[in-house]
Amino acid sequence: MVDAEYEIENIVLSGTYEDTEFDLEGLADLLENARYDPDIFPGIAYRSVNPTASFLIFASGKANCVGASRLVDAENANEKLTEELREAGVEIGGEPEVKVRNMVASFDFGREFDLETIARDFRNTEYEPEVFPGLVFRLDEPKVVVLLFVSGKGVCAGAKSESDIEEAAGRITEAIG
Q: Given pLDDT bands bounded at 50, 70 and 90, which one contains residue 98?
């Protein structure tokens, strides 16, 4: 029995700058590649170039990083944002508290699936092919959702670590053989 091959597609990190409030209008003027339109969205959309990632920065002192496909890149982008904020004159007490909120990975199980049989055999599944072509497989441990497709491909969402992704691949492979 072979586990699926996987590739991390996106990592979402949240960073919280304790006791910090951002002046979004002023900050948007100071950061290159930043957009702020409070009539459309209550935060700054900011693009980091090296490493490539995007941020949503809020007045509350929170910044969400999305778009990196490696954890080290997401962490480096977050560190670079903190540096740029300090260089722009923003008073930040310490380093932000950073947490992984979500990792999304694509799977290739290397074979096709009979989704109707899987849906009948497992209670933690949803399959409505007239609404969506994939089967939704919810795992309790790790707490992730895996979308499976007839082609043998899949998507894992909700992971907090790469080991969650690997464990999910193994549990799906074990369950459906």
A: very high
CATH at residue 143? 3.30.310.10
Residue 152 near residue 110 (C-beta atoms within 8 A): yes
Report yes or no on 5 lying in a domain: no
Nearest to 16 by CA among 71, 81, 104: 81
Provide the residue range defining the domain that includes 116: 103-176
Residue 153: name the closest of 9, 44, 20, 4 by CA: 4
* Residues 111, 91 share a domain: no
Q: What is the pLDDT of residues 53-68, one digit of tens each?
A: 999 999 999 999 999 9
For residues 87 and 109, membership in a common domain is answered with no
Contact 174, 17 (CB under 8 A): no
Total structural domains in the chain?
Answer: 2
13 in Cβ contact with 74 (< 8 Å): yes
